[in-house]
Design goal:
By secondary structure, the protein is an alpha+beta fold. The protein is built from 38 helices and 14 strands. The strands form three sheets. The protein has a six-stranded antiparallel β-sheet, with helices on one face.
Length: 769
């Protein structure tokens, strides 16, 4: 075979072989490139029906353009009828070869697992299941990139069920329970197999192994693997939980998508809280030995907590607006502002869930009991506090209430000079965390207890007033309201120019105005950048500083830096609702929609009321994912709380239009609102009223932004005009980041070289998920 020419490929050398065929390195004589040829065993392609199915699957796999999937270029036959596949040839080695040398460094193993999950996410999105994920089917290039190979071969070989003793043990060790039973499989079977590969990378051993096939299958179906930390004590508990959930025997308990798994990998990397279902994994009984250990720990904990009041762990707290004992009734900003500041501090503890004050104020009604509040908010404890100011002295009397027992778990009075209000807040937050009995990491303890600077009382009150006004602005986004809040922040900075909080809020205010187009974005970016850089310089360990800088990065198309900053913000403040939203927005901007959906779902779980108050909810993501039925349902739910929502009606109309339900779309289009004006011309065109749509467009042209104009011309098939307005949108910055890769109206432009040039100019790779 070496030296021979098959079709237009000259065989150079043999790279390897096994039960699924022999691989050779070859020279493509037409394109002058090095490729790999995989010759399949004749018994795999002798059945013409099986061969046809394989060709169809391979054709689908060849369309998967992803950095972590081996590219398939061609399928051909030799003159004697032997089938071969033409693939990319990589310098490197298989993951199997790497594992044979022993367990991998933990960070390296997670990096590889994440890359494989990203490749699977792409395949699953396109309806392709690999069915044979194992170390031998993962190539590691010399520059550290993991490539999944052999899509479609598992189906061709029929290895979804075991039939012959001892014939498929190597592959069988990675089979999911449903595969071993011969049942239909879906994307979750690949997730199981990746969990097995993770276990092997981290421990050097397979979780299920036997020389006898029947014993191996029994283990997969009936037994739990030995805990990884028994084999390798330094494996973090978080990774054990991720791995065990990936290998859950019941598919409903497993990760449902690769994107969910990737989200937990990202959470582990930045030290933030894993998803709720994953956190619960080790609480289940996995084996008699493991259960005994758990029981022992629970027994000790029970004895301890029996002596400590009720013994409950209060891992969720609602903070009520502080009661103002001052005679000045205009100081609601102060009582609400201090409650918000305490919430911000408690968000730094990953094991504690604290709803936003906006959610608390929306759900708590007068004369509610503590038990009713807790049930409505889904929390286990209620914090109430009273503020009393006497000259420069500030006193806060706080009580943490057990709603079931209707009595305080803890209470204390704190008193400080107003200039030490940040220290007072820090002491209060530490006391709360100490008394709710949750686990607090050393880093979290240090952040909670770090020394606090003194503040100027006048400046700090201006900051609290501005924060309250900013919170109200989404309900009435007017430039006058924004000007009022920003003026207060500027005065606060003039009085106290070394407070990072003020600069971070200023930068966020500029970003908010850009998002609502109250002021041209290009005018705001320099101011936003200056404020964010000042906040970072004064306090880089403030989550708000990192978030404000991330917003600047996105507007400047520096997505790598924005990713780093949002990761750092989540590390500093794991329960921070805004940090989750920012991360989700970044993922949307870079067209990682599956991962964005997971992040937004986490934000929704953290604070459902605040999430809906953002105006888009999950419908926004579903619309971009082309899941229009889900988008319609989500926007209808949003509008149950806010029937007059401009955004809700507009996106509901768009979703109806994309489904061809044009009467419903036009019924939800209110052209008296901002979004209604933007979408009315394309809705009319899609409804078959092209002339009317063009007339409405010309009438309202001055009110329609550049991006919407680009989408309208793309819909009309006028690509040159569409790209002129896209270029204008690019120059104006604004919303183009969010829409460029996601807007269905722009789909007709994506094959045009000008589209790819625009992506390149914006540092976008054009890949989704």
């Amino acid at each position: 075979m070496i030296g021979s020419t098959i079709s237009h490929y000259t065989i150079l050398e043999k790279l390897g072989g096994g039960g699924m065929g022999v691989v050779y390195k070859a020279q493509d004589l037409k394109l002058k490139r090095t490729v790999a040829l995989k010759f399949l065993p004749p018994d795999l392609t002798r059945d013409e029906d099986a061969k046809t199915r394989f060709v169809h699957e391979a054709q689908a796999a060849s369309a998967l353009q992803h950095n972590n999937i081996c590219n398939v270029h061609d399928i051909d036959e030799t003159k004697d009828g032997q089938t071969f596949i033409v693939m990319d040839c990589y310098e490197g080695q298989s993951l199997k070869q790497v594992i044979e040398r022993g367990p991998l460094p933990i960070d390296e193993a997670i990096g590889i697992a994440t890359q494989v999950a990203q490749g699977l996410a792409k395949a699953h999105e396109n309806g392709i299941v690999h069915r044979d994920i194992k170390p031998a089917n993962v190539m590691l290039t010399t520059d550290g990139v993991a490539k999944i190979v052999d899509f479609g071969l598992a189906k061709l070989s029929g290895r979804t069920v075991l039939t012959k003793s001892g014939s498929t043990v190597g592959t069988a060790a990675y089979m999911s329970p449903e595969q071993a039973r011969g049942e239909a499989v879906d994307a979750r079977t690949d997730i199981w197999s990746l969990g097995v590969v993770m276990y092997e990378m981290l421990t050097g051993k397979r979780p299920f192994d036997s020389e006898y096939e029947q014993a191996l299958v029994y283990s997969i179906l009936s037994q739990d693997p030995k805990p990884m930390r028994e084999l390798r004590p330094e494996v973090p508990e978080a990774l054990e939980k991720i791995c065990r959930r990936a290998m859950a025997k019941d598919t409903k308990d497993r990760y449902q998508t690769a994107a969910e798994l990737i989200a937990d990998f990202e959470s582990y990397k930045v030290g933030t809280q894993l998803s709720q279902q994953t956190r619960k994994v080790l609480k289940k009984k996995h084996s008699l030995l493991y259960a005994a250990a758990v029981c022992a720990v629970v027994a000790i904990a029970a004895i301890f907590f029996y002596t400590q009041s009720s013994g409950k762990v209060f891992d969720s707290i609602a903070v009520l607006p502080f009661e103002n004992l001052s005679a000045d009734t205009t100081r609601s900003f102060f009582s609400q502002g201090l409650a918000n500041e305490i919430i911000d501090r408690m968000w730094q503890v990953s094991s504690l869930r604290v709803p936003s004050l906006k959610t608390v104020m929306a759900k708590v009604k007068p004369r509610m009991t503590y038990a009713e509040m807790a049930k409505e908010l889904g929390v286990k404890a209620i914090l109430q506090a009273r503020i009393q100011q006497d000259g420069s002295r500030l006193k806060i009397s706080a009580a943490l209430m057990d709603p079931d027992a209707d009595r305080p778990l803890w209470s204390k009075t704190f008193e400080r000079d107003f200039s030490n209000i940040l220290t007072l807040q820090s002491e209060l937050a530490q006391a709360i965390v100490e008394n709710v009995r949750v686990n607090v990491s050393q880093d979290e303890q240090q952040r909670l207890g770090r020394s606090q600077k003194t503040v100027n009382p006048q400046a700090y009150e201006l900051y609290l007033r501005a924060r309250q006004e900013m919170t109200r602005l989404p309900l009435n986004p007017t430039k006058s309201g924004w000007d009022s809040a920003m003026a207060k922040l500027h005065v606060a900075i003039d009085i106290e120019p070394d407070n990072a909080l003020y600069y971070a809020s200023l930068a966020s205010g500029y970003g908010w105005a850009a998002g609502w187009t109250l002021v041209p974005t290009t005018k705001l970016i320099p101011k936003m950048k200056a404020a964010a850089e000042k906040a970072l310089g004064l306090d880089p360990d403030l989550a708000e500083s990192q978030l404000s800088a991330a917003v600047v990065d996105v507007y400047q198309y520096n997505f790598k830096s924005a990713q780093s900053r949002t990761s750092r913000a989540l590390e500093l403040s794991p329960g921070n609702f805004s940090a989750h939203l920012a991360r989700g927005g970044l993922l949307v901007s870079t067209a990682r929609l599956e991962q964005a959906l997971v992040m937004y779902q986490r934000a929704q779980a953290l604070d459902p009321v605040q999430f809906k108050a953002g105006g888009f909810g999950l419908g926004f993501i579903y619309f971009f994912m082309r899941r229009y039925d889900d988008a319609i349902a989500a926007f209808k739910e949003l509008m149950r709380d806010d029937p007059k929502s401009d955004v809700g009606h507009a996106f509901l109309a768009l979703a109806y239009s994309m489904k061809g339900m044009h009467a419903e779309a036009l019924a939800h289009n209110d052209s008296t609102h901002y979004w209604g004006v933007m979408i009315r011309p394309p809705l009319l065109v899609r409804a078959g009223k092209r002339s009317l749509g063009m007339n409405v467009f010309e009438r309202d042209r001055s009110k329609i932004n550049s991006l919407s104009k680009a989408g309208f011309f793309a819909l009309l098939g006028e690509k040159d005009s569409a790209f002129q307005w896209l270029q204008r949108a690019y120059q104006d910055r604004g919303d183009i980041v969010v829409w460029l890769q996601n807007d269905p109206f722009l789909d007709t432009l994506r094959d045009d070289p000008r589209y790819r040039e625009l992506l390149k100019a914006m540092n976008l790779d054009g890949k989704k998920n």
